[in-house]
Every structure is written in C-alpha cells, then in structure tokens.
C-alpha cells in the first residue's frame, strides 16, 4: 500500500521539509479586513504581523473548504492508495471534523484522519514521523501505533504577551485571561484534553521560560533521545538566543526553531514564545 502524508498548514513545516519528506500541505486561511488569505501561500508570518500590528479588529481564521480537501485527495488518488491526514486540535479548529466527514464517502482513496490534539511544530512531529515510516514501508496501523507512542512523551508549553487574543478568538476563557491581566502575570499555557489552558501562573516571562526549561530537564533525565523545537511569533532573535542557552545546557537534545504562523498567531499575538519536544524515534 502506498501512503500519502497530509498535514494542514498550522504544522508550519518548512518548504524544504515538505519537499524532502513528500508531505502535502492543506492550507488554512486568515481573514484580514475581509480578505481571505491562505497562510504559507498568500501570506507569511512576518507579513501577517506587520499588517495587523496597528489594526483594532482582530483577524479571524478559517479552515479549508470541502472542495479544497476533496480536490487534494482526488489528486493524491492518482499516485497513492491511502492518505493519513494529520490536523491541529479538533478543539480549536473544525478541520479534523471536516476531513473525517469526507473520509466516509471518498471512494478513490482511503482517508485516515488524525487529530493531533495540538498544533504547530508539535503537530509537525507527527507528519514527519509518518512520512519517514511510510517511506520505509510501514502500514497505516503501524503509523497510528507510533502516534500513540509519541503522545506519551509529547510536551508543549508557551507564553504570550497578551491573553486577550486567545479570549477574543474563543480559545481561552475570559476568567483565565482576567487572572493574568489583573495579577500582571505571564502564565504558562499548554494543551490539556486538546484545549489551551493555563499550566502555571508565573510572575515574569523570564521565570516562565526557566520553568519550561525545568520541565524539559525532567524528561531529559529520563534518558531517552529528545528532539525539541522553539517556536516564536515574529520574535526570532529571542528564539535564537534561547536556543543557544538551551544547547549549552542540554547538549544531548536536538533543538530546532519554528514559528507561530498567521492562523495560530491570530490567537496568540505577536511576541509569543514556546517550546515543544518529543522522544526522537528517527
């Protein structure tokens, strides 16, 4: 069986990774001043933050249309028997549900949707591992079993400058945001049961990042190989500086840098910084 690997654009893989690993991208869109723009194709992260920095109205995001999804799967059916389609958390986007509904009536290719329960580089880990396994002859069951293994060690934490973006986008409760605003804290956020929630309340961004480092250290001490990614929202200088510090402290860990693109940036705001990691199976 030949298996195609699809992930939506919120995995924020590089163009090189898509080409090298033969992964197919399904773009989500942002809507700015009534204009619909496909992220990673019609607008990139830097341009997105430049455009919205002084806007009073928060941009919105939208999932791929049914027609776009069906068109991609039909195209893939010419060369593949099946597709594993990996998506951001079903609690923050309807993309997974839409693909799932399409999978029930697609006849020319078998479609296996996967809800990563997360987004960004953490989501990308699943796509990269699935592509590696598919190229080595693994079947769908093998790949989904590996996904379950990955979920056991997958961690992701992030800090935002302004919680209001998450509230206005419906991704965090207003009560949680008021805690951060009134107490002037920088809470560490993470995904729990596929939703963004507060992990811990920290007084400053510096202390929040140090706390995330301590969480990474707990897993490093368990002895298995780890790959980690620092993720930033138009704050590359901070990400590079943090990576240098982390590489010195954790020489056994492979560190990469990625970003929060337009769709996720809509909800986190400029300046957000986070880190994700997982057991390295490569």
UniProtKB/TrEMBL annotation:
Keywords: Lipid-binding. PROSITE patterns: DEGV (PS51482). SUPFAM superfamilies: DAK1/DegV-like. It holds the Pfam family DegV. GO terms for molecular function: lipid binding. Signal peptide: none annotated. It comes from the Bacteria. May bind long-chain fatty acids, such as palmitate, and may play a role in lipid transport or fatty acid metabolism. NCBIfam families: DegV. This is EDD domain protein, DegV family. It comes from Pisciglobus halotolerans. The lineage of its organism: Bacteria, Bacillati, Bacillota, Bacilli, Lactobacillales.
